[in-house]
Amino acid sequence: MRPEKRSAARFLARNGYALRGTPGFGKAVLKILAEKDLSEYEVEQLVEELGDVPPSEILPVADELRKVAESRFHDGHDLTDDLLEILTRAGSWSVAKDIATDATSRLSTSRWDRAAKLRSQSRQIAAELENAAAESESSVVVGLTRRWREVERDRERDHEENKKKRDPLLGLPVEDPGE
């Protein structure tokens, strides 16, 4: 990243509160957030600033958020939850749904990714439900509710089947304090 871009990221991360409400602020934050080589702290601060941008400024750049979600994911930052919050608050249901779908499709069906994939599917269905409700598509809402229940049952079953394998203390000699 060029030094001036890094300086801009730091400046916005530290002083964004003073610029909130300035026309074009959201677009500027989004442009910097799309830059490569940002630190985790800078990304978090910029997303926080983006969360304070008014919905009227988010809607025109909503599609750009999808591109940012993808590029940030490849840099090791999963912003899906944060961006879904920002987009749904702004009423951009379809882009939120697309970001949730993208996040689910990035996960494999391997045993390793299964729990994360199921959680992501729940999040995706929730975004799809919100979009369908916003579009007044009641039959779609009913179908998605069924899918939600199925995925939740799958999550419970997966948790029970893999509880021991996913125990962070698996294999460590830990004494039972009740003994």
Walk me through the structure.
This protein is an all-alpha fold and 179 residues long. It has 2 domains: 1-91, no CATH class; 107-167. Helix content is 70%, strand content 0%. The chain is built from 9 helices and no strands. The protein has helices at residues 3-19, 25-33, 40-51, 55-58, 62-74, 80-90, 93-105, 114-134, 138-162. The longest helix has 25 residues, at 138-162.
Largest sheet: none
**Low-confidence sequence ranges:** none
Radius of gyration: 20 Å
Number of domains: 2
Q: Determine the number of helices (DSSP H or I, runs of at least 4 residues).
A: 9
Q: Assign an overall shape.
A: globular
From the N-terminal CA to the C-terminal CA, the straight-line distance is 57 Å
Strand content: under 5%
> What is the structural class?
mainly alpha
Order of helices and strands: HHHHHHHHH
Mean pLDDT: 87
* Count of beta strands: 0
Residues in helices, as a percent range: 55-70%
Give the helices and strands, then pairings.
Layout: H1 3-19, H2 25-33, H3 40-51, H4 55-58, H5 62-74, H6 80-90, H7 93-105, H8 114-134, H9 138-162
Helix pairs in contact: 1-2, 1-3, 2-3, 3-6, 5-7, 6-7, 7-8, 8-9
Short description:
The protein has 179 residues and is mainly alpha-helical. The protein has helices at residues 3-19, 25-33, 40-51, 55-58, 62-74, 80-90, 93-105, 114-134, 138-162. The chain folds into two domains: 1-91, no CATH class; 107-167.
